[in-house]
Amino acid sequence: MSAKTKPTRIAIIGTGRLGSAAAYSLLLSPSISPSEILLCDPNLALLTAQVADLADAAYALNSNTAIRPATYHEAGQCDIIIITAGSRHIGESVGSVAAMGRNASVVRSVVSGMAPVNKEAVVVVAAEPVDVMTGLARGMLAGVLEEGRVLGVGTYLESVRLRGMVAGEVGVSPCFFSPSHSFLLASVVFTICGLVVKV
Fold first, then answer.
1. Bridge-partner residues for 123, per DSSP?
2. Which CATH architecture fits 9-152?
3. Closest by Cα among 31, 32, 23 to 53
4. 37: part of which helix (H) or strand (E)?
């Protein structure tokens, strides 16, 4: 007889493109199959629309995962907490001082609102710039969560963007480049073959 595993509750904070894509990906992943996905966003119209769309997707996929809106505090009680929230930065770089300041303010608000955080939770930060926002969240949760429970998605997205930009410049498919050909260790500006690439 197999031992029953505790249902996994996952919170996604920020229901923009990245947050909704993360929720949909979780619905498509039978290996994870969370019992609940809680969505949080201060934009209630967007939140309501995303909950309705993802609930429809769950029904269509015959998923047993419940999708519902939640507060930051409720999100803080989940097993896995994914922070994708950030401010919009139309026309400016994610790494600009103004954009970083606004995103830092959002992440501070989110982490403060989650208190008291489930001590067994894993927090995954995808807010940009990821390295800076992960450090901020890790610092705020020090002493609350054990070391290694606050993670960032790293520079994976920037690495994918870099491969796409370089492939577009040289006229080849991005599939030509494997992850080992181009992987960023930090969000920086590169000059490659005379091409200035800001990621």
1. 81, 150
2. 3-Layer(aba) Sandwich (3.40)
3. 23
4. strand 36-40
Give, in degrees to the nearest 5, the angle at Cα 127 between 44 and 198.
125
13: three-class secondary structure by DSSP: strand
Encode pLDDT of 155-165 as tens digits.
666 777 777 77
Tokens 């982490």 belong to residue: 111
CB atoms within 10 A of CB 77: 17
DSSP state for residue 176 in the 8-state scheme: G
Q: By C-alpha distance, which of 124, 147, 9 is closest to 65?
A: 9
Alpha-carbon distance 132 to 16, whole Å?
20
CB-facing half-sphere around the CA of 24: CA atoms within 13 A: 14
For residue 116, cis peptide bond before it (omega within 30 degrees of 0): yes
| Sequence ranges of the domains in the chain | 9-152, 156-198
Mean pLDDT of the chain: 83
Residue 47 CB: number of other CB atoms within 10 A?
18
Of 10, 64, 65, the C-alpha closest to 39 is: 10
Q: Give Cα separations from 145 to 77, 117, 123, 150 (angstroms).
A: 12, 8, 9, 8
Model confidence pLDDT, tens digit, residues 15-63: 998 999 999 999 998 788 899 999 999 999 999 999 999 999 999 999 9
Chain segment 164-187, per-residue pLDDT in tens:
777 778 777 766 665 555 555 444
Question: Model's pTM, two decimal places?
Answer: 0.79
